[in-house]
Amino acid sequence: MGITSALVLFAVIWSMTFLIALPIRVKTQGDLGEIVPGTHAGAPEVHNLRKKAWITTWISLVLWAIISAIIIFEVITVRDLDWFNRGSPAAPASETGG
Description:
The chain is mainly α. The chain is built from 4 helices and 2 strands. Strands 1-2 form a two-stranded antiparallel sheet. Helix 1 crosses helix 3 (49-72). It starts with a helix and ends with a helix.
């Protein structure tokens, strides 16, 4: 796995983890009873984004390390996920007449 692949994998894991963490423990304006005129009652009042970003980063690092190790040490390969044998190796050129 190259450096670009590793960075993209981390970015995808971080983004997915952050989207999961966003709604956790959010206090909305409706929950606190202090609705600002012109805003929705579900608008967040206390969202703790900095804390969630740090937690997301640490969780993502752990997940990235595990997934990267699986990819690097080939614990699971593309062949393991090929249930319909569509990725079978091509026949040698001598057998196909080419």
